[in-house]
Specification:
By secondary structure, the protein is mainly α. It is about 75% helix and about 5% strand. Strands 1-2 form a two-stranded antiparallel sheet. The chain is globular and about 60 Å long.
């Protein structure tokens, strides 16, 4: 427990400067680094880290995309992402043909699905940061994921009696899931109050409440989904970058899901906008 707490404190100490300089090019650099590390952990887990025809292009995409997303506007970012998805699908289909004896289609399919989840999730954070009001809006990614995870844990410890999906995650409970969801919704509403009262933002409380509900559910699904891959491969953690917590992917699994869904939500509706 002491190791987990110490690692968490150090991690927060590193994260705060990254967030404070999120308006600079330091931010996409940090996102690119995190994305590459998470991808390496995934490819190593799938046994593809030394298959250079898969790993190298994936790393190049992970490095380039955060800078491209920052350079273009929101509409162009969405088109860029769609183009990258199509290109990745076609490329890995070609790899499955020309590298037939070295890998399997199932392996590549798993790498494609989880790899896009990682790359697009990290880049969704940059996308949110660069939207109008993004200097605050992107913080909902971390608030949603961490509040859900924290209060799901405490609700489960205090009230948990019914297992959620024991074969995937034995410790998670239905009561914990409900508690994490409720507190996520409340945290989004509180965030809206702070933005409205403290910073004079126009806020849609119904949209924030619905977004909080969706984010809480997606956060838990993202966490469980990455746990499925670990269980299938018989490993406890993706890495040991954060002692007591696991690897980059272990710490960002739910954040990636939250970032992606918030990027979609903010593309179709305004949660909050600066008052003109």
């Amino acid at each position: 427990m002491k190791q987990r707490i110490l690692t968490a404190v150090i991690g927060i100490g590193i994260l705060i400067p990254i967030l404070l300089f999120s308006h600079t090019w330091f931010f996409p650099v940090a996102v690119a680094v995190c994305s590459v590390i998470a991808l390496y952990e995934l490819l190593r887990c799938l046994g593809l880290s030394r298959m250079w025809g898969v790993s190298v292009p994936t790393y190049v995409l992970a490095v380039a995309l955060p800078f491209l997303v920052r350079l273009v506007d929101a509409a162009e970012s969405m088109r860029l992402v769609a183009l990258c998805v199509v290109a990745c699908v076609l490329y890995l289909m070609a790899v499955s043909v020309f590298q037939y004896e070295k890998t399997s289609f199932a392996q590549l399919g798993e790498a494609l699905l989880a790899g896009l989840y990682i790359v697009l999730g990290f880049n969704a954070i940059v996308f949110l940061r660069d939207l109008p009001g993004g200097e605050f809006l992107y913080l909902l990614v971390f608030i949603g994921a961490w509040i859900t995870d924290t209060f799901a844990y405490f609700s489960g410890v205090l009230l948990g009696k019914h297992k959620l999906i024991p074969k995937v995650s034995p410790k998670k409970t239905v009561e914990g899931s409900i508690g994490g969801t409720l507190f996520c919704i409340l945290s989004f509403l509180l965030f809206g109050v702070i933005m409205n009262v403290g910073f004079s933002y126009d806020v849609s409380y119904p949209a924030l409440a619905i977004s909080g509900l969706i984010v809480a559910l997606v956060s838990q699904v993202g966490d469980l989904c990455m746990s499925v891959i670990k269980r299938e491969r018989g490993i406890k953690d993706y890495g040991n970058l954060f002692p007591g917590h696991g690897g980059m992917l272990d710490r960002f699994d739910s954040i990636l899901a939250v970032a992606s869904v918030l990027a979609v939500i903010c593309s179709v509706t305004n949660l909050m906008m600066p008052t003109l």
